[in-house]
Design a protein that fits this description.
Layout lengths: L1 E5 L6 H12 L2 E4 H11 L2 H11 L6 H12 L8 E4 L5 H14 L5 E5 L3 H9 L1 E4 L7 E3 L18 E2 L6 H15 L1 H8 L3 E4 L4 H12 L2
Parallel strand pairs: 1-3, 1-4, 2-3, 4-8
Antiparallel strand pairs: 5-6, 5-7
Helix pairs in contact: 1-9, 2-3, 2-4, 3-4, 4-5
Length: about 220
């Protein structure tokens, strides 16, 4: 399957993508992952991206698209890919459309995960992350707490609430999403690729997507 997963922060894109990779061997791709991968690999594009990130600047779209072009043509993408949190803006969506045409890849659909605001706030304010940068395991104080309070099950490091997951920070992230990213729903609707899924259970979302694709 070749999908774009749309949805506000906390809508469950990462969880759904991970579950979908187990359905047919598609790979999950996020902008952060490919940027980190290019930097670690020491590619020319990776070095340029690293310079922007170290300066605290956003990586320009043309650089992201160059890295995305290389990533989508790697062998593991032949079985399919799930774009998690990309594109984020209309210009990125238009650039991605041109890139996919160029490399001869056709999207199956763009899936919008529509989750109520109160559910998102509850999910993110109760999320905790391992402070070890090499681990970063994710927990939830309500639904998936660590076995020992405040301590990561996997590596024993402290588990923390990220600065961008306080209620105030999340409200701001949702405002940014509504302003810049939500218009992508209309973009993909006009392209005839949009599928809306209204469910808070990741398993229900995965089942719905799989049925629509015919897997």
């Amino acid at each position: 399957m070749k999908l774009i997963l749309l949805g506000a922060p906390g809508a469950g894109k990462g969880t759904v993508a991970k579950l979908l990779t187990e359905v047919d061997g598609s790979v999950q791709i996020s902008t952060g992952d490919i940027l980190r991968g290019a930097v670690q690999a020491g590619t020319e594009l990776g070095k340029q991206a690293d310079a922007f990130m170290k300066a605290g600047d956003l990586v320009p779209d043309d650089l992201i698209m160059g890295i995305m072009e290389a990533r989508l043509q790697e062998p593991d993408c032949e079985n399919g890919f799930l774009l998690d949190g990309f594109p984020r803006t209309i210009p990125q969506a238009e650039a991605l459309k041109g890139l996919l045409d160029k490399i001869g890849v056709k999207l199956d659909m763009a899936v919008n995960l529509d989750v109520p605001r109160d559910v998102i706030l509850d999910r993110l304010t109760t999320r905790r992350t391992c402070s070890n940068s090499d681990c970063q395991a994710i927990y939830n104080v309500k639904s998936n707490p660590p076995k020992q309070e405040g301590i990561c099950d996997k590596c024993g490091s402290p588990v923390i609430q990220r600065d961008d997951e306080t209620e105030e920070a999340i409200s701001k992230r949702l405002e940014t999403y509504n302003e810049k990213t939500a218009p992508l729903v209309s973009f993909y609707e006009k392209e005839g690729l949009l599928t809306k899924v209204n469910a808070t259970s990741s398993d229900v979302v995965v089942k719905s997507i799989s049925e629509k694709i015919g897997i």
